[in-house]
Amino acid sequence: MSTENPKFKDFNFAEGELLLINKPYKWTSFDVVGKIRNSLKPLKLKVGHAGTLDPLATGLLIICTGKLTKQIDTFQAEEKEYTGTMILGATTPSFDMETEVDETFDVSQISNEEIYAACKPFIGDIEQYPPAHSAVKVNGERLYVKARLGEEVELRKRFVSVPAFEITRIELPEVDFRVVCSKGTYIRSLISDFGKQLNNGAYLSKLTRTRSGNFLLKDAFEVLELVNYIRNKKEEAKTQAEV
Asked: Is the pLDDT of residue 115 over 80?
């Protein structure tokens, strides 16, 4: 890989770098952190992410290294934007494709106008419950651990803000959408509640984070692209040191 690529620069990972990464499908956010941390060895640096993405989601993940990890909470608090697809006419226990469909509904009588109108109650400051299959901790235990064991979970309502929620394509049972929301918003819960608003069912089938604060997905690195660049730079430095 050419180090002349204008997308890259001379990083100072110890001092602190903010890295924009396009998280791959089925990778956890910690998978990405681990991959980058390993590429930086033998440097022993703090590496962390500013805002978890579910494994089935893709898109913008902010990674911080070195001294910049102290600012993770600040980056994490920023407004987020997502695009995605829901399946109307069915539900799953996890509100997404992690679990199998448990109930189906007739969508033949639902008009496009009703689908567009169903967004309106969810725009602004709203209340929502996190999915039972989520990483939220209750009494020190992740909800998804209890849910997968078939145990009852206590869901606590949370308040979030949704400045924008719009439908961008309708081709039933698929419905595409765009959402702008505050930290802590569960898009899976939003889509589940959207289905209920239509006296129907809905679950999330695709989700991509396109923005976090002022940072955009279009400016992000692919994970392996960045890892290979870092390794190439280390090899160059090693070669120069041996000359």
From this structure: yes
